[in-house]
Amino acid sequence: MILIVVLALGSALLYGVGDYFGGVAARRIPVLAASTINYAFATVVLVIALLVTGGAWSQAAVAGGLIAGVLAAVGFLAFYAALAAGPISLMSPLMALLSSAVPVVVAIVLGDHLGPIAWIAIVLAIVGSVLIGVERRVTTRGARPRTVLFAVVAGVCLGLATVALDNVPDDAGMVPVFLDTPLGFVLLAGLMALARAVPAVRRSVAVLDSHEPAHASSGLSPIPSPGAAYLSVDDTVQRGRARLLAATAGLFIGGANVLLMIALHAGSVAVVAVLVNLYPVATVLLAWVLLRERVNAVQGAGIVLAVAASVMLGLA
Questions:
Q1: CB 129 within 8 A of CB 278
Q2: What is the reported pLDDT for 67?
Q3: What pLDDT is stored for residue 157 in this prediction?
Q4: What is the separation, in whole angstroms, between the first and last Cα of the chain?
Q5: How far, in Å, CA of 101 to CA of 95, rounded?
Q6: Cα distance between residue 72 and residue 33, in whole Å
Q7: How far is Cα 25 from Cα 80, in angstroms, rounded to an integer?
Q8: 68 or 237, higher pLDDT
Q9: What is the Cα–Cα distance from 175 to 78, expressed in whole angstroms?
Q10: For 304, how many CA atoms within 13 A lie in the half-sphere containing its CB?
Q11: Which end of the chain is less enclosed by CB atoms within 10 A, N or C?
């Protein structure tokens, strides 16, 4: 169990850093573009991981990877759209809660055998992940129904993607997560091509970018809105930096996917999912270090619960 905890927390750390960079990128360039770049660089990591570790190409492994790929592509688009639209203080905890709860519910339905201490730790970890994402001034202002819908779709789809990756043979290795990521890249790149060629698709995709510019309460530095991204040399530089951020996010998320797959092979999907969804810890720490933001009492309580849950799972 200790190895599972270490792998899952390592994945959470990489996801948190990647999501921070990806969220910033999605506020400077269109969400679809940021997500596609993200997936492209994550694919590079997964190709290397597959070449190094290998895996059995069974029908179940391929099916699990393809299903996870579709779910994750939809989930990440909705995820970045929700973060870009905000308020992050509400959207991030909601997505963390749903993407943790879905695998736990599936594990319960399938009769996953865990001890009482493990289940208590899982509850503490879920509560901790929600509290960590709560900012100092929690308000429903700006939480439009469309933004909430993005968050719900993201949480459910990413949770189900984790379940799909878990339901593959043990000898599958990196095959499922390898298929997951390149498939997502192909889907997103294809959608970008359609958006450029077909006005109706372009208008539909534009819904992802219907948000206000970043502001201080978001936990991100002030940046221009995507709609103003083509007006000056400075904006061109900003777009270039955003692409670099999206690429960096992809490298981190690719590494996180590798650790996630190893952890799922080794342990329960309920345990792995809730630990991986402690990724807001990394985001909060980055905001603390880079933006000099203070960790509020609620977030501090969430971090304490997350640490306690991790220790309990390690000892279970």
A1: yes
A2: 94
A3: 94
A4: 7
A5: 10
A6: 16
A7: 9
A8: 68
A9: 25
A10: 7
A11: N
| Closest to 177 (Cα-Cα) out of 188, 189, 166, 186 | 166
Distances (CA, A) of 293 to 24, 64, 216: 16, 40, 10
172 with 61: CB under 8 angstroms?
yes
Averaged pLDDT, 183-202: 89
Q: CA–CA separation, 20 vs 182, rounded Å?
A: 22
Tokens for 169, please give them.
């043979």
The type of residue at 203 is R
Which residue, chain included where needed, has tokens 């997103």?
Answer: 188
Q: Which two tokens stand for residue 208?
A: 């992802």
Return the DSSP state at 101.
Answer: H
Element housing 198 (H / E): none
Q: Specify the residue for token string 């799909």.
A: 164
- pLDDT tens profile 203-250: 888 777 755 444 333 333 333 333 334 334 567 788 888 999 999 999
CA angle 95, 45, 151 (to 5 degrees): 10
Diameter of the chain by CA atoms? 59
CB-based burial label for 308 (10 Å; 0-12, 13-18, 19+): middle
pLDDT for 111-164, tens place per residue?
777 778 888 888 888 888 778 766 655 454 555 777 788 889 999 999 999 999
Q: Please give the C-alpha separations between residue 67 and each of 62, 141, 162, 166, 212, in angstroms, as whole numbers.
A: 9, 36, 10, 11, 33
